[in-house]
Design brief:
With 300 residues, the chain is α+β, with helices and mostly antiparallel strands. It has 14 helices and seven strands. This is RNA polymerase subunit sigma.
Length: 300
């Protein structure tokens, strides 16, 4: 950034840096490693020539790719260890991101640690930050299809880590109740169906204006779902089997607009996975919508 053309509002620069730190913390966890990854990212940026930097149309995307690549390399390092006391102390002077701390619970971080580096990277970049498939593929070094498979594998692994898997008939009953609460805009009932520490992911894939960060906590998840599924004419909520479990399929003007699946533990929803990316919904819309054996609730 050597000339006037490189300048930008300070607020944008600070927001850009915080975004990179968020990406690194989700991928690497707490401690100094995330800060070091971002420092290395900016070191690479300033290592470019003026002409190379001028040729980058969107510096934020370039920086995000670089941060993701650096984090993936560190995740793949054979001797990667949890941060030691000296690393935690080194982070003491960094202002904590309270919202991010709420989103990344210790339980979730431990679960992410059990994933392979490629699975973790694909999951974080796709489900947490809703980056376009091509960007995720560039960072992970795989094709978009392979990254989609890695993301789904990560989801399965996270679900398998639940302490008390819910039997199918109980899962079905609770998802039915969730659908009914959404259709009636009953926030009190919906909150009662959610774990206090529920977390929701909204995968828009950069193709629809969806939430780009996870929503954490029963109250916030309930409000996000009710906002997403607010009553509109010609919108219907169906129940259908997806990946062997009951899910909600949202149709608008007879087209599938969202597929929402749920992880349930101890009679409460712990994770909500909302797929809104039109690319991922194509197979649902190629032919006539799947038969709905459970009936539907209609808005409007």
């Amino acid at each position: 950034m050597g000339g006037a053309d490189d300048t930008a509002p300070l607020a944008e620069l600070l927001d850009e840096r915080q975004h990179l730190i968020d990406v690194a913390r989700w991928m690497l966890g707490a401690g100094a490693a995330a800060e070091e990854a971002v420092t290395e990212t900016y070191r690479r940026w300033y290592g470019l020539t003026d002409d190379e930097r001028t040729g980058i149309s969107d510096p934020r995307i370039w920086l995000t790719k670089s941060t993701g690549t650096i984090c993936l390399a560190r995740l793949s390092a054979p001797a990667r260890q949890p941060p030691g006391p000296e690393e935690v102390d080194a982070d003491a002077g960094i202002e904590p991101d309270l919202a991010l701390s709420e989103e990344i619970s210790n339980v979730l971080l431990n679960a992410l640690d059990a994933l392979s580096p490629s699975e973790r990277a694909a999951f974080v970049l796709n489900d947490v930050f809703a980056m376009p498939p091509r960007t995720v593929a560039d960072i992970v070094g795989r094709t978009p299809q392979e990254c989609a498979e890695l993301t789904e594998s990560a989801r399965r692994s996270l679900r398998a880590g639940r302490a008390h898997p819910t039997p199918p008939h109980q899962h079905d009953r609770i998802v039915r109740a969730v659908r009914q609460a959404c259709a009636l805009n009953d926030v009190t009932h919906l909150v009662s169906l959610l774990s206090r520490h529920a977390i929701a992911f909204f995968d828009g894939g950069g193709k629809i204006r969806a939430l780009t960060r996870p929503v954490h906590g029963d109250q916030h998840v309930a409000q996000a779902l009710l906002t997403l599924l607010a009553s509109r004419s010609r919108t219907t909520l169906h129940l259908i089997a997806a990946n062997g479990r009951t899910a909600i399929v949202v149709r608008h003007h007879d087209q599938v607009a969202a597929v929402i699946s749920f992880d349930i533990t101890d009679q409460r929803v712990t994770h909500v996975w909302a797929v809104l990316n039109p690319d991922k919904l194509r197979r649902w819309n190629r032919s006539h919508p799947p038969a709905d054996g459970h009936g539907a609730v209609r808005h409007g």
